[in-house]
TrEMBL record, chain A:
Family named by the database record: Belongs to the ABC transporter superfamily.
Location of this chain's protein in the cell: Cell inner membrane; Cell membrane
One Gene Ontology MF term: ATP binding
Membrane-topology descriptor: Peripheral membrane protein
Protein name stated in the entry: Cell division ATP-binding protein FtsE
Function noted in UniProt: Part of the ABC transporter FtsEX involved in cellular division. Important for assembly or stability of the septal ring.
GO biological process, one term: cell division
TrEMBL record, chain B:
Protein's recorded name: Cell division protein FtsX
Lineage: Bacteria, Pseudomonadati, Pseudomonadota, Gammaproteobacteria, Methylococcales
Keyword Cell division listed: yes
Record function comment: Part of the ABC transporter FtsEX involved in cellular division.
Segments passing through the bilayer: 40-63, 185-209, 245-266, 286-310
Record keyword Membrane present: yes
Record InterPro entries: ABC3_permease_C, FtsX, FtsX_ECD, FtsX_proteobact-type
Topology of the protein relative to the lipid bilayer: Multi-pass membrane protein
Length: 218, 320
């Protein structure tokens, strides 16, 4: 599903962020990405999200090389991804419904289909009934669930989460992780960047550890 | 099975098209709504644009009015032969008949001193002053309209020198000369208006472009998030292009309104002046089709400015 082949990334002014990273995530596999700050976690996620391009090697998503993909094709490739962020990245001037609907509107679904899928998605994260609220009227945990609902509404093949529990207390974190495990059950590949060693060990999934740009445990 | 598949593909296409139209409609109205949400900023921008547009269209209408004024002079290339003061009416009449024999002359009209005075009294509004004069200061005139009107300058000049040979003629004046001069002046004026309008058009483009650039900066988060969920550039720039369209359209209308109000203010004194000159000059306003053209030009310029900025800036904006 997701394959890194000898991937290196060098920034012109910050030096090498990733060095010769190779791994493979299977369909329906869930894995954690750990490492200290500056170890290259964000860079690795950015390569998958096509926000950066690697200097050497190749990244394959569902068999397609996304490293040298044309600028015009990037939006269409991104529709196969569900992205979740530590700071939620919600649009605070729009309702929960509109936030979750964004990936569908962008892909050109009709009104009825959008409404149906958004409700299904909000139902999965337990926020049905809060569609008309604005994000700032919700708690942190609820906002993150809106972010998750937005990530899964397009039925992506791969979910990427960058420190999704970074701003949440342990109970809420466990709740969010439980959701991710459910996605894994239905065949979605999940990659979660996290500091939370305790939670990671408790859950017992595959762990990819980065140290100064090298993949040390896979 | 295959047919079913094709049907599905077809309905997905129809769905995409429907969503596309809906998206455009949404962009059109939401961008208008967005402008009203920041009324002060929007009003300032629109006013600046409207003033630029009203300036350009005012220059245009002023030139159009002057052209209207000079328009009926265009074909006039008649010559006026002013006779010496001592020539009697009978002698003048005789000369006129003699000139009529000339092959290149179409029409000849003799105006006696007395007739000239009457005409001048009637048209100038100086009748009281003229009555006060002891003797008639006006000369007799023979008006000559040449046959091959305006076709060749040389022919007319030759005719002119022929007429100058007559001892009775004091001097010959060809109206064409000052008409030609006036036409040249008008040509320069309309060129000037064109250049100034071009500059003002650039101003409209750049002002709108800059407004859209600021708007884009204000809505950076939205752009980033849209990009991350797979929005194409076309999708992201659509509402901004509609904002540009509204800016151009509204200020085009407002510019027309400003210009029309200015013309209405000028209309009464202009008409007064025109009656003083004994002429019936109607102030020319922008016609309906010109008004539509003005709206179209201002909208297109604004959209163009927005598009140029978006084309460049959307590439620069990379989600972090």
């Amino acid at each position: 599903m997701l394959r890194f082949e000898h991937v290196s990334k060098r920034y012109p002014d910050a030096g090498e962020a990733l060095t010769d990273v190779s791994f493979h995530l299977h369909r329906g596999e869930m894995a954690f990405l750990t490492g200290r700050s500056g170890a290259g976690k964000s860079t690795l996620l950015k390569l998958i999200a096509m926000m950066e391009q690697c200097t050497r090697g190749s990244v394959l998503l569902d068999g397609q090389d996304i490293t040298r993909i044309g600028e015009r094709k990037i939006p269409y490739m991104r529709r196969n991804l569900g992205l979740i962020f530590q700071d939620y990245k919600l649009l605070n001037d729009r309702t929960v419904f509109d936030n979750v609907a964004l990936p569908l509107v962008v892909s050109g679904y009709n009104h009825q289909e959008v409404a149906r899928r958004v409700r299904a998605s909000l139902d999965k994260v337990g926020l049905l009934g809060k569609e008309k609220k604005h994000p700032l009227a919700l708690s942190g945990g609820e906002q993150q669930r809106v972010g998750i609902a937005r990530a899964i509404v397009n039925k992506p093949k791969l979910i990427l989460a960058d420190e999704p529990t970074g701003n949440l207390d342990p109970d809420l974190s466990a709740e969010v992780m439980f959701m991710f495990e459910q996605f894994k059950q239905v065949g979605v590949t999940v990659l979660i960047a996290s500091h939370d060693i305790e939670l990671i060990n408790h859950l017992g999934h595959r762990v990819l550890t980065l140290d100064k740009g090298h993949l040390v445990v896979s | 099975m295959k047919r079913n598949h094709r049907k599905q593909a077809g309905s997905r296409l129809a769905e995409l098209f429907q969503a596309y139209l809906l998206n455009h409609a949404h962009g059109l109205f939401s961008s208008l709504g967005r402008l009203t949400r920041t009324p002060f900023t929007s009003a300032m921008t629109i006013l600046v644009l409207a003033i630029a547009i009203s300036l350009a269209s005012s220059f245009y209408i002023v030139v159009a009015n002057i052209q209207q004024l000079t328009g009926n002079l265009e074909s006039s290339n008649q010559m006026s032969l002013f006779l010496h003061d001592n020539i009697t009416d009978a002698a003048g009449q005789k000369l006129a008949e003699q000139i009529q024999q000339n092959g290149s002359v179409m029409e000849v009209k003799f105006i006696s001193k007395k007739q000239a005075l009457e005409e001048f009294k009637a048209n100038s509004g100086f009748s009281d002053a003229l009555n006060a004069l002891e003797r008639n200061p006006l000369p007799s005139v023979i008006q000559v309209v040449p046959k091959n009107a305006l076709e060749s300058n040389e022919d007319i000049e030759k005719l002119m020198s022929d007429f100058k040979q007559f001892p009775q003629v004091d001097f010959v004046q060809v109206d064409m000369q000052w008409v030609a001069r006036l036409q040249t002046i008008m040509l320069i004026a309309s060129r000037g208006v064109m250049l100034v309008s071009l500059l003002l058009g650039f101003a409209v483009t750049f002002i709108t472009g800059n407004t859209i650039r600021l708007e884009l900066q204000n809505r950076q988060d939205e752009v980033f998030i849209s990009k991350l969920v797979g929005a194409t550039h076309a999708f992201i720039q659509r509402p901004f292009l509609y904002t540009g369209f509204w800016l151009g359209f509204i200020s085009g209308f407002l510019g027309w309104l400003i210009m029309t109000i200015m013309l209405l203010i000028l209309e009464t004194p202009v008409e007064k002046l025109s009656t003083l000159y004994n002429s019936s000059f109607d102030l020319l306003f922008l016609s309906f089709s010109e008004f539509i053209l003005l709206l179209m030009i201002s909208s297109v310029l604004a959209v163009l400015g927005s598009w140029a900025v978006l084309h460049y800036q959307l590439r620069q904006l990379k989600p972090q």
